[in-house]
Amino acid sequence: ENDVAEAAIALLRAVLLTGGGALGPAALRCETWRVILAAMEAECTILLQQQAQSQQQQQQQQQQNGLGHGHSNGQQHHQQQHPPHIPPEMGYIRLRPDVRGELLEVIVGGVLYRENDPEAPRALMQVANPLETRLQHVLLKLSSAAATAPIKGNATAATTAARVRAALAQEIGEVADLYAGLAKAVDQSGLSLLAGLVTRALEPLVGAATQCGPYPETMHVVLKFLRNYAEVHISSLGAEATMALLRAAGQALKA
Question: Most buried one in 79, 84, 219, 226, CB count within 10 A?
Fold first, then answer.
C-alpha cells in the first residue's frame, strides 16, 4: 500500500508541475481526492465516537472515585488507547503517516493552485476538519492522561501510565507528520488559506509534544513540520503568523 501510494504521489507531483490553471478543479474531481476525503471523514467519525466513549468512561471513573470504589486509572485509560478497526477499503488511513502527509501536500497544492479560486476555501476545509479533529482528539487524551496521574508508589499504575504516554507521543508524531506534509503545499490562491490552517495548529501541536515528555522521535517530527512550514511559507507570512511560528520553534527547541 505504501509503495502504491508513493507511486501515486510521484504521478500527482508530475501533474502538479504541468497541470496549469485547470489543476485545482481537476484535483477536486479526481478519484484520489475523493478516496482521501472519504477516508479522512470516516476517521473523523471514528475519533468523535472515541471522544464520546472516553468522556463517558472518565465520568464513570469520577463517579466511582467519589463513591470510594475507584479502580486502576492507568488500566482504564490504557484500554482507551486501542486503535479502532480500519475497514479494508479505507486504505489511506493504513498508510504510514509521512506518506499520508505527502499525499496531502500534492492534493492540497493542486486545490490551492489557482489564484482567487472560489472553490478553494471549501475544498481546504474538507481536509482541515478531519485533521483538526484528530489533533483535538490527541489533546483530549493527553489532558485525560494528565488528570489521572498514578499515585506515587504504585509501580503497576506508573508502568501503565508510561505506556499510555508513549502511545500518545507516537500519536502526536503521526499528527505532526500529516501537518508536515500539509505545510509543504504551495498556496497560490492569494487567500492565505493554508497559513491560517497551519498557524492554528502551531501552539497546540508543539505544546502537546513538549507536555508528553522526553520522546526525541516525536519532537523530531514536530521540528520537521516547523521546518517545512518555514521553508515554504515564511516569505509570505504576515507579522502575526511569523511571530506564532517563531514562538513555536523556540518552544520546540527548548524542549
Answer: 226
